[in-house]
């Protein structure tokens, strides 16, 4: 529901979000009140010590204050649990109760000060247990006051000022999208939102240089974020509830579909041979894409053996050994990045042409002689710290595949995050490609940076002077995957035989024309329900509309005290439903807690209501009052429930697509399995149409991890034969290299 309005402004919390914090504080206050009452009763109100009269008054006053606080908290919890997400009518009294609770902080503060004064001045001669109890009460008061202040800061909405309010709400269906009042209001709201998001980004990235390039990035990213969030009136708990409901709805739809006919082919068929060859190439290249992350991913993937290997106690290749052997300065003082790359790829140090470890000033540059056994290493320090969009990469000679391999690192720093978020479109004209040519701005800039290093600095010339018969292969994961695909497009005219393997690339990367062009030389690998290949601005807008729709349709509260069932159980105890009714009488946790349970342990999605029980189908074709109330008037992203859910219907943003042919890997078997069960995968060719919607799942982030992708590829290459989907294979015109 919309954020709660109190003290003359909107807050980042809804009136139905006070159940959990209120219940926790209520439990704490009740225990505190009981303990104080026991202490007072034990001494029978008489304390034979200095300041005994003050202590008596303190305990009596504390009992009264705690009693009032307990009553106010019980009222807040009870009222907050009423109604549904978009029907806050039964919670109208929440602001008044919040005002009452806020007033009670004044006597609590006074009594906390009084207790502190008594402990410091008048507690001499009193029993140590009594003094300890008072000290505990005083400390508890101050801790609660501190956390209350932090909570106020946390839910404070900088854009909740009452000075900017929309005009009177028009009747449903009447939308003067061009009216000057609505346009001015929306423009003012978005301008304020942009400033707020820019301040947040500056605060989060305070350790980065505040130069012109970073300021421009902050500005463009804040504009993007403000445009996405400024036209809705949802609080974080609403979004969490919507995601939980949407996940269950998606699972329900998936289970209702007829199972696909999956045919297992032997590896001897031509189609299997082609796919198996691509899988083997992808598994090999994924090792280099994972190696580009350096020692953090290596230690994460090998927590028990990595420290020994990197310390030089294993196989004679260690951080300190290489650090002493090579003149490496700056970002890789111990040589751990380079040692982890050697361990992951299995290459020798002489096979590397150029290595950039991270977004700092140091890179390792290897000048090779023309004989294989002669090489020299030197460290090159750039004249200035790299700017945003300058992401790390390395160039190596892959003798196994006879390739000069360029591996681009994925997201591993704040600068990489800024590159990811620079999701505006940038023109990328390519000779011979008809149609609109544009791409993700941040990754386009990163690809341009690497292109200049490879071509202008002569890195590729040096590599091909050593191995002129080798072909060029570009690879990367996540951010590195998108950058590698764009880099391959830039290098394609100079290297016609170039190949690119893009692992878990972002879905919002290329225009349609460039995506079709890249299918001749780019293979994208996507695992399961990975979020990133489905991540694009149109898809995010589609997800926002789906959340609004399902939240507006839901007739269940996030958390509820079912007073109707409680009273029915009390009045009719002989009913056969008495036991089941009583089970939900105390605290009926609906969306959030059941959603958390479903995410962790699974269950039957049919048990979770997601639509109004008595709403007729024809009524669903009309805009909902609940859905309308969650959107700011004159929002261009508003759609009624009758509109198509496809993000293609959103004209506010240019559509972007993942690169190349898409090799889609999924788990073969039930979606829920034990942690120790053997996982089998199946692979098939897919199209960008399968990634036009974001799937909500606990594995949406796990499936994006590079070690998970590498494990799935290695499993497919070692298990064969593997399962294929013939329907997608027969329709793919780019099946052969």
Automatic annotation (TrEMBL):
<keyword id="KW-1003">Cell membrane</keyword>
<keyword id="KW-0443">Lipid metabolism</keyword>
<dbReference type="Pfam" id="PF01764">
    <property type="entry name" value="Lipase_3"/>
</dbReference>
<keyword id="KW-1133">Transmembrane helix</keyword>
<keyword id="KW-0442">Lipid degradation</keyword>
<feature type="transmembrane region" description="Helical">
    <location>
        <begin position="55"/>
        <end position="78"/>
    </location>
</feature>
<dbReference type="GO" id="GO:0022008">
    <property type="term" value="P:neurogenesis"/>
</dbReference>
<feature type="transmembrane region" description="Helical">
    <location>
        <begin position="98"/>
        <end position="119"/>
    </location>
</feature>
<dbReference type="GO" id="GO:0046872">
    <property type="term" value="F:metal ion binding"/>
</dbReference>
<protein>
    <recommendedName>
        <fullName>sn-1-specific diacylglycerol lipase</fullName>
        <ecNumber>3.1.1.116</ecNumber>
    </recommendedName>
</protein>
<dbReference type="InterPro" id="IPR002921">
    <property type="entry name" value="Fungal_lipase-type"/>
</dbReference>
<dbReference type="InterPro" id="IPR029058">
    <property type="entry name" value="AB_hydrolase_fold"/>
</dbReference>
<dbReference type="GO" id="GO:0005737">
    <property type="term" value="C:cytoplasm"/>
</dbReference>
<feature type="transmembrane region" description="Helical">
    <location>
        <begin position="26"/>
        <end position="43"/>
    </location>
</feature>
<feature type="transmembrane region" description="Helical">
    <location>
        <begin position="131"/>
        <end position="156"/>
    </location>
</feature>
<keyword id="KW-0378">Hydrolase</keyword>
<keyword id="KW-0472">Membrane</keyword>
<dbReference type="GO" id="GO:0019369">
    <property type="term" value="P:arachidonate metabolic process"/>
</dbReference>
<dbReference type="GO" id="GO:0005886">
    <property type="term" value="C:plasma membrane"/>
</dbReference>
<dbReference type="InterPro" id="IPR052214">
    <property type="entry name" value="DAG_Lipase-Related"/>
</dbReference>
<keyword id="KW-0106">Calcium</keyword>
<keyword id="KW-0812">Transmembrane</keyword>
<feature type="domain" description="Fungal lipase-type">
    <location>
        <begin position="406"/>
        <end position="537"/>
    </location>
</feature>
<keyword id="KW-0479">Metal-binding</keyword>
<keyword id="KW-0597">Phosphoprotein</keyword>
<dbReference type="GO" id="GO:0046340">
    <property type="term" value="P:diacylglycerol catabolic process"/>
</dbReference>
<dbReference type="GO" id="GO:0004806">
    <property type="term" value="F:triacylglycerol lipase activity"/>
</dbReference>
